[in-house]
Amino acid sequence: MANPNQEIKYTKIFINNQFVDAVSGKTFPTINPSTGKKLADIAEGDKADVDLAVKAAKAAFVRTSTWRQMDASARGALLWKLSTLMERDVNVLSSLESLDNGKAFPNSLYDVQGSIKTFRYYAGLADKVGGDTIPSDGPHFSYTRREPVGVVGQIIPWNYPISMLAWKWGPALAAGCTIVMKPAEQTPLTALYMAALSKEAGFPDGVINVVPGYGPTAGGAISTHPDIRKVAFTGSVEVGKIIMAAAATSNLKKVSLELGGKSPLVICEDADIDKAAMIAYMGVFENQGQCCVAATRTFVHESIYDKFVEKAAALAKARKVGNPFAEGTVHGPQIDDTQYKKILGYIEVGQKEGAKLVTGGKPVGTEGYFIEPTIFANVTDDMTIAKEEIFGPVQSIIKYSTLDEAIDRANNTSFGLAAGIITNDINKAITFSHAVEAGSVWVNTYLAVLNQAPFGGYKQSGIGRELGKHSLEGYLETKSVTIRLPAKV
């Protein structure tokens, strides 16, 4: 059950299986975006705390440590145990997520349940990471070993806090790495609660460390640390570039980046307009539009354009905005005042540049960071709202004439995270799926993210893949071993 008064037990840094104050003694507030009021004061980690966390993670990774000597199947069992503890505390985690992030409680519950499944997927994968035997020339026996890279730094965003934690912890732990994670400063509560559950599950000291703090300080210390061998980041392109540069100039640590998007969803003339409008509605307004794959560029064929806009507007107007713990709420607040003002600024620019505001566009209520679901029609490709990632509840509906034209326009972006098409023509579906430059393509659906399927972007939407077996690659080294065999008699 939802609990808007959920107790906040964990507010300190988690290092070596202990909750500790920041070395500096500093704290920072985490804010409830529904009210704009403080939820709790959180220990503010910086370089000194990251150094301690890395030291603990490095000790946990030495060749003779409990973690390194543990069977891969036993690592999988620990991941499964963690998932069962999450299942036990599903309502606590979901309530904390809604308090800290603002998403409607049913959505938080969905995210936590999905994260449980993510951990169970990687629990099953932990003992299935193997190498190859190689038919070598000469009197040699050659094989490969897949070995964990070592201490990894992980920096996660605020839009899906617990999901992003599971996407990062799952493959890293299945591979046998140790972790130093920085949650987003806006949403540290579920990460700290998960740290407590990891200790209860039985993960050895130092395997998992959580250092809340700010990007330039705690995040910067992770991306430049000489003893961290891989950094995984989900967030903006701007910050991703900073992290990649820091990784290069420090110790050439491995980097995986899941960055922004400006995803196209193409509605073909043969589509069922009601179904297409609903898919597009879910694809853009999910999580208040704070979704990296949000279908914010909705390309609609000219023959059905006006009817589609009418259907889309009706759905947006009916969307219930309000307290995430209230019955029937599906749309909560934006994450904070900065994002709130940024989104309203984009809405203002859209109107100034000539887009037609069909519905929405205004703040909701007098407290918190609520914005009406907003739809623009008559949007052209050169408009700011069609080019830049808004990360808010703003849908741009764009008219097109032919599929070839739609593909070219869909690809005319520096992003390439996701794309979708709604059609009853299999030839159109395949043509689009093969031609569009995006890491995930959805046909007659959207947001169909699966634990078993790789997720990541083309172009400036990132490097590497999350989820599926592919996600393990960034956490593993490949070692070739060649042994000379005795000469034949």
Contiguous uncertain segments of 5+ residues: none
- Based on helices, strands and strand pairing, what is the structural class? alpha/beta
Q: What is the molecular shape?
A: globular
Give the biggest sheet.
7 strands, mixed
Strand content: 15-25%
Count the domains. 2
Number of helical regions: 15
Q: CA-to-CA gap between the ends? A: 75 Å
CATH architecture of the largest domain: 3-Layer(aba) Sandwich
| CATH fold naming of the largest domain | Aldehyde Dehydrogenase, Chain A, domain 1
Strand order in the largest sheet:
14-17-18-13-12-19-20
Average predicted local confidence, pLDDT: 97
Q: What is the CATH superfamily classification of the largest domain?
A: Aldehyde Dehydrogenase, Chain A, domain 1
Helical content stands at 25-40%
CATH class of the largest domain: Alpha Beta
Number of strands: 22
Rg of Cα set: 23 Å
Any overview of this molecule?
Residues 20-481 form the Aldehyde dehydrogenase domain. With 489 residues, the protein is of the alpha/beta class. It has 2 domains: 13-259 and 462-479, 3-Layer(aba) Sandwich (Aldehyde Dehydrogenase, Chain A, domain 1); 264-443, Aldehyde Dehydrogenase, Chain A, domain 2, CATH 3.40.309. Helix 3 (72-88) runs antiparallel to helix 6 (161-175), helix 4 (90-101) packs across helix 5 and helix 5 packs parallel to helix 6. The strands form 6 sheets. Strands 14-17-18-13-12-19-20 form a 7-stranded mixed β-sheet, with helices on both faces. The chain contains 15 helices and 22 strands. It is globular and about 75 Å long. A hairpin with a 5-residue loop joins strand 5 and strand 6. The model has no long low-confidence stretch (mean pLDDT 97).
